[in-house]
Amino acid sequence: MILSPSMLSSDFTNMESELKALEAAGLEWVHLDIMDGMFVPNITFGPPIIKAMRAKSNLFFDCHLMIKEPGRYIQDFADAGADLICVHAETCDHLERVCAQIAETGAKPVVALNPHTPLESIKYLIPQLYMVLIMSVNPGFGGQKFIPFCLDKVKELRAMITEAKADTLIQIDGGVTLDNAAELTAAGVDILVSGSAFFGFPPYDERHQAFQNVCK
Ligand code: DX5
Ligand code: ZN
């Protein structure tokens, strides 16, 4: 299991030390939530901030774009240092094209689905995706409650990936805690995103270990 802490719950005034603390705690990924105030009712940060973070960190930058028309900004995020670029299926009229555009930059192409969006919408794209992100809250804010039906969605996605003979990874984001982490990984999740349940409980090395322990 890979844990990808969501910087949305970190101390924004000390991003450099937060990133360094994650590396020191043995984390390899960090989840960056980009929100535009249009697709979701909140605004965070964009490529300039990611570029500044990139200069201070070697972590794998897992960039979750919650923005309308993400195709207009793929190159900007790649240039800023995104290792993975995740776009929402709901924001792309031509999702296959946007995924190809991401792959062309050298970043890993990923698609996110809102809780109510059917898996069917990405069925044919699975072989070309590095990962699928199942949103388990309505995106926009940290600290929300996990929507229970998303567990079934993970199981169904795992079966679809097996059926497609693909090696696409599954990530879950929203309301992940020490209480549901084991059930989620058993259902087929490879990467857990955690914001409030991670950053709210320092020290980070112990919290990281606690997540790894419950998922064993
Ligand atoms: C929500 C974001 C999440 C958020 C998760 O829209 O995409 O990444 O930070 O936060 P928690 O883990 O607190 O639900
Ligand atoms: Zn996210």
TrEMBL record:
Cofactor, how bound (note): Binds 1 divalent metal cation per subunit.
What does the entry list as the binding residues for substrate?
Answer: 6, 64, 140-143, 173-175, 195-196
Q: Where is the active site?
A: 33 (proton acceptor), 173 (proton donor)
* Annotated family: Belongs to the ribulose-phosphate 3-epimerase family.
Tell whether Hydrolase is among the UniProt keywords.
no
Name the PROSITE patterns for this protein: RIBUL_P_3_EPIMER_1 (PS01085), RIBUL_P_3_EPIMER_2 (PS01086)
Query: What positions belong to coiled-coil segments?
Result: none
Which SUPFAM superfamilies does the annotation name?
Ribulose-phoshate binding barrel
Q: Which keywords annotate this record?
A: Carbohydrate metabolism, Isomerase, Metal-binding
Catalysed reaction, written as an equation: D-ribulose 5-phosphate = D-xylulose 5-phosphate
Q: In which pathway does it act?
A: Carbohydrate degradation
Q: What is this protein called?
A: Ribulose-phosphate 3-epimerase
Q: Where does a divalent metal cation bind?
A: 31, 33, 64, 173
Statement: the UniProt record of this protein carries the keyword Transit peptide: no
Instruction: Give the EC number(s) listed in the UniProt record.
Output: 5.1.3.1
Function, in words: Catalyzes the reversible epimerization of D-ribulose 5-phosphate to D-xylulose 5-phosphate.
Q: Which gene encodes it?
A: rpe
Cofactor(s) the protein requires to work = a divalent metal cation; Fe(2+); Co(2+); Zn(2+)
